[in-house]
Design a protein that fits this description.
Number of domains: 1
Number of strands: 3
Shape: globular
Strand order of the largest sheet: 1-3-2
Order of helices and strands: EHHEE
Helix content: 25-40%
Structural class: alpha+beta
Number of helices: 2
């Protein structure tokens, strides 16, 4: 599954019941958030393309 950053923010807001327009996460926090949202601990973040690939 591939999510762009906007889709990720939408999913984040829905899961955590917040309404953020931008999210800043530390690299060490990303695995936990990805697991919470998508039940996966295998992913790749492409910052230059603004994409997250979840395996």
């Amino acid at each position: 599954m591939i999510k762009n950053f906007n889709e990720f923010i939408k999913d984040f807001n829905e899961y955590y019941q917040v309404n953020y327009k931008n999210i800043t996460l530390k690299d060490c926090d990303i695995p936990e958030v990805i697991y919470d949202l998508y039940d996966s601990d295998e992913f790749e973040v492409y910052y230059d393309l603004k994409l997250i690939e979840i395996f």
